[in-house]
Specification:
alpha/beta, Rossmann fold, Arc Repressor Mutant, subunit A, 7-stranded parallel β-sheet, globular, disordered C terminus
Length: 743
Amino acid sequence: MKINDLPVPKSIKVIMLNSGITELYPPQEEAIKAGVLENQNLVLASPTASGKTLIAELCSLKHILDEKGKIIYLSPLRALASEKFDEFKKYSSIIKPDGKQVKIGISTGDFDSVDSWLENCDIIVTTNEKADSLLRHRLDWIANTSLVVADEIHLLNDGARGPTLEIVLARFMHINPDLQILALSATINNVKEIANWLKAKYIVTDWRPVSLSEGILLDQEILYKDNTTREIQKKTRNPTINLALSTIKTGGQALVFASSRKSSVSLAKKIADQLGELISKPLKRTLLQEADKLLRTEERNRVNESIANLVKNGVAFHHAGLVGFHRKLIENLFRKGQIKVLVATPTLAFGVNLPARTVIINDYRRWTPGYGNYPIPVLDYKQMAGRAGRPKYDKVGEAIIISKTSEEQDFLMDNYLLSNTEKIWSKLAVEKIIRAHVLSTIASGFADTQNGVYAFFGKTFYAHQYDLKTIERIIAKTLQYLYDEEMLDLYGDHIVATKLGKRVSELYIDPLSGVIIRDALKQKPLQLTSLSLFHLITHTPDMGPIMRPYSRELDNLTFLMEKHKDEFFTPIPNEWDDHIAFQEFLGEFKTAKVLKSWIEEESEDNLIGQFGIQPGDLFRTIENAKWLLHATLNLAKLYGCEKILSLSSELHTRVSRGIKKELLDIVKLEGVGRVRGRILFNKGYRTINDIKLAPFKDLTNLPLIGPGLARKLKEQVGAFLNKDELENTGKGKEWKQGFLSEY
């Protein structure tokens, strides 16, 4: 089917044709014929790069131009949401029937914000969690949603992300029964079951723009799924490195999946040692420049240097321990073909779109708590294998698993290459997961009786797969818990959320976190310090993974923990009575210590060295701490706890910026973070007024400031620059054109 033959307005066709798209892929054509542009619910299961996003774009624009309503695009990850937002932006030039341009918005953070500006957007790209948060605030414009696109629908099977996606879809179906749902995935086994739940048609296809060859490498020989073989050159004793080198020699790129962060870094370094001679001189010059960008950050650390050294050789690693800046730069370099080998942990398979000619699965086992090194699900293998083959560059993509023995090769062939993916099951019916969703169902007005709650949960995938009776017992127990903890109240048969319950739901925290914080507000420690609040928030289930102590840290942490015992809201567990609880408390204390060191302006590099943490983990801990300090502040306000309200407000800002209290004023200026703030403070510029009075030349001579930032600082404090100072910042031309009045 040609683009010109599509039943969509000409303005959409023009943009697609200008993008080089003239004809639909087979899966796209099937979706059109299935009625996706006529409001038909659809589950589209087709391989990576087969054009699922284009169908979402067509569907969205058809809704907007037919004036049906708003579009919500659900993504499981922030990085993926950002990628989709960039793809949708090309349609912002299209004019709607009301004469206004199509407006695209993205919202992925701050779960207590209603983001009122979203009301003016036509297409809203968001994460599942942010969508859940917006639904809890029961905003008027939510009811105008006419299309929901659920990307990576197979993640219903994920114990962490699946329940939220399931609840969000159930809520949207509850609000608007006429809503259109478009669910997308690369791999689904029980697609018919999911389609029935969503009252949708379904399309399952193996069609790919680049064909896929799956094989197993043993020593130097690859055995493919069709029983053909191929030999590769043996340059090292490591078959993964040999296969990566073979790919690069033929002009391709390799994406290597390692089982852990540590092994991804180690393997990347080994590949870099072998790859140097295969990188051309012009590319080496480009990579040197890109490596320099990694080092020109406000705060340099050993991880920056490690990545930079690898990038120089056309190699990088990618895992959750990296900060967003690192990940984005590495992903962009890989997309441009400048990084030749990327070694990643399996989480990348569910993330951003990074195809490679060859996907190498270095280890099919993964560390699973409680199980040890356990074989990955077939679904995970298929997700990784699906990255093989670069559209427009490769005719064939290869997905190869590394095997150590012939017996293992047979196992891998039978259990991965020749197997179907596992069935997707709802993970909703777990008490610690369901309690937040039960509370939000009542607090947001989706139900006001016990039977009403049952009726809502009857719309979930869990109820569709099993029977509502199997979940009613958990719901009843949860309702009792929420009532006992004063988050719900009863008026006859009617259930209402209390002020506490409503606020906990809006703050998007686990009710158990709300209980822990509320109880702490009622009993202050003997000494209320920053460490008190840091340990309190790390003691909540919402803090996420705490930083487990290494064996070398145990004695010192135990000693320090005892020393600070008067600052804790909860008593230290007895190590001999409950060893597990003691170890958990010790991990919470370590995490609190990291946060304390962060606001004392300990450098990132020292934190990495002292506590053995990665920048990405530090960033996530900081983000979670900000969220939970915000929640503590709001609950303290609810209960009138002035001291905790004041301290949590101060700590929220200090954690956000990583600063001592004395820098609170100076970091209000845009462009001034913890490092520049300390430079300014130590040179005597300690307040906004000090900056206003400071000689412009003196500011420009400070490290990491320079003329450009000095000008911005002066503008922010309302100071005026003279002609020479403006010319120093590259603004002389503007001055000569009569723009002096702006300054």
